[in-house]
Amino acid sequence: MVIAAHPTPSPESRTLFNDGWTVRPKVSVFFELGGAAPEPQPVTLPHDAAIGEPRDPAGSHDTGYFPGGAFQYEKTFEVPADWAGKHVGLEFEGVYRDAMVYINNRFAGHRASGYAAFRVVADDFLDYGATNTIRVECRLHQDARWYSGAGIYRDVWLTVQEPVHVAADGLVVSTPDVDDELAIAAVATTVENAGTRPRTVRVDARIEDADGAVVARATTPVTVLPGEPAVVRQRLAVDRPQRWSVDTPNLYRAVVTVADDDRIDVRSTLFGIRTLQLDTRYGLRINGEPVKLRGACIHHDNGPIGAAAIPRAEERRVELLKAAGFNAIRSAHNPISPAMLDACDRLGMLVMDEFSDVWAEAKTSFDYSIDFAEWWQRDVEAMVRKDINHPSVILYSIGNEIPETGDPISSVWSRRLAEHVRAIDSSRYVTNGVNPMVSVIRHFAAMTSQQGSEGGVNALMSEMNDIMGQISASELVAEATEESLAVLDVTGLNYGDRRYLLDHELFPNRITVGTETSPVRIAENWAVISEHANLLGDFTWTGWDYLGEAGLGRALYADEGTPLLMGEYPWLLARCGDIDITGRRRPPSYYREIVFGLRHEPYIAVRRPDTHGRSQMPGVWAWSESLASWDWDVAEGTPITVEVYSDADEIELILDGESIGRAAVGSRNGFRCEIDTVFRRGELVAIAYTDGRETARTGLRSPSDEVRLEVVADRGTIDASPSDLAYVDIDLVDADGVPVTASDRRVVVLVAGPAVLQGLASARPATEESFTGSSHTTYEGHAVAVVRPTGAGRIVVTVRTDDGLEAGTEIHAGTPSHTAPDKGVTSWRKTPHAPRASSSALPSR
């Protein structure tokens, strides 16, 4: 009974307001008087104003060396004369940051947070029966520890309602009573009266199943006084409810109509029927079944298109994360977009939504701490009211690595935030991503100072896993954080896995989740989590790679001296995601899948030959420099190390039929083994043995010298809507389709038909190439083009290389529905092949 419609059909009073905008850098009005204002560029929302800006080598690794700036969006629209007397508003799902809204050059609204949804009432500022102008100004400047993007990066909605209407966020559905025979859908509707006289209306609520059939209905009269909202509560019984879960994400729709003699207003929302339980005996239960959270932390950017939360981009990330074995995501470190919540509901992904990276203690010069004291209540309300009807949301996190959590006076904020969340929504659980080391940061700073003569901060950071573990397990942390953690339903620990068993003894009623964990520790952590009900799961840093915190997860080697923790320009990516920014799974993703018990086929990851014999320094986020490829631009006979991940007892590695090594693997050996050999082109096969019997095998093959382009869209049919996207994979392969990873090329992408090239990127972590141009160099033989439709019709994507390769694909953009069957992907090649190119002239890593 899954409702798959996307996007959710809008009630008549609420329509998307994304078209017809322009953007330009914001300049002073006095500067504009000189006639030198920048030329505005047309854009369709959601839009990231920062992703196309030139990066600054002297800038910050935090933001990926993207600069700050101020931006101005404008749009003109017609306001009919008959809107006079109606209630008109604009709903912004997210504007980064410090949004100032002007209607007809009159100040109409402001929101400090770059992540909170907000509404501007337009009635007093409109010119009826005329053309109106809306202007939105926003800015970013040293206010985030990652790439935030800028601009109106989430959807905007226009609401035109009668004076008596359903309030914004005024439709709330809960399911307090559920069993196999019957569920109660409790519908709470807030009705407002912007008129001058009392009105009596009827509120009709109905519940529809996935087929649109009405399964429950109720109607109630309500008298609404001017300026005094009225809440109408109706309990509707749903027979034999189809429950929502990760595996069966069944959805219903609640539709509320407010009417007197005529229909006045209509609002609808999707919701799910499910139960949540939490205790130390069974852990987390959904619909009575224990669930372990196989979680991924994710930042909010969408890689090649920056921070723009285009619904299809958000949906695709959820699809790929779930296919990689995750069943939960943590929105780090800001409230998740409504578009991604919709996707999580439809696809069956659990959500921990997070409030903020800071409270009153700053982490960057101009971050949210400046606004926290004034705005925190309204911003908490915005997050919770956004989430309240989404069955995917099970946890609210009130913060991330907040220093205040280690101080008794400052930790009062923990209680304030947690109780404010519960006052709005008591049906879900509250946690906080507490990093024990950060909670006692003052003591940690003193330790750093004392160790300065022995290698300084860099040496300290190279041993961060051990240091964080030691601090986390200390008595100091237990005492300093006890009050802040007692406020929570679920203790969230960032890099605090050394406390898992310790807390089980010290605080037997404490229920814990790894809100942020090191990817290299998943095997050890998951073994403990699997055995203890009070440990709910693990959220790795990170499930998806991201822009900014450049070089955080790069491999560091002892022969590099004392390297910096972060990457210098042109580093762009964090390089710590299970999935890279193009949507391709990296080796740690397959390793994690094996640890979770979801994959039994061995996985081969070959370390780059230039790392052979070098000692990689331990790190919190760095994986080995490895790739599932047997294609290397080195002489045959070059020493090379092969990693194999498997849950079997033993692995045998075979090259062209010759055994080149056997090694123990499986859980006792951390599910991985390493075998040193030499590179020679051919076929490399890993055979898994358990109890002496072959259980599975996998292999890698070297490509031939012929190189072709393979261009394939993720879907052959998409909606003719700018809310949809086609992701076009661009790969270098040989004549048999074997990936060519050691011979990268610059590709040029041309889009013909009703569409634009929204972004073009590879996963190269350090590059000076832009994502907004029509050319880009592949990385490990791969790039992705993101195509955004502008209307209905046939879209042709053509890809060419400098040495004459050409291939393409066709996409059909049809009427928005997402219910039509996919007609399949049509791809073609014009040029059959080209010789292998030398990689010596390619951009450096």
From TrEMBL:
Residues 637-696 form the DUF4982 domain. Residues 709-803 form the Glycoside hydrolase family domain. Keywords: Glycosidase, Hydrolase. The keyword Cytoplasm does not apply. One of its GO terms (molecular function) is hydrolase activity. The keyword Amino-acid biosynthesis does not apply. Signal peptide: none annotated. Coiled coil: none annotated. Pfam families: DUF4982 (PF16355), Glyco_hydro2_C5 (PF18565), Glyco_hydro_2 (PF00703), Glyco_hydro_2_C (PF02836). Residues 806-845 are annotated as: Disordered. Residues 834-845 have a biased composition (Low complexity). Belongs to the glycosyl hydrolase 2 family. This is Glycoside hydrolase family 2 TIM barrel-domain containing protein. It comes from Leifsonia williamsii.
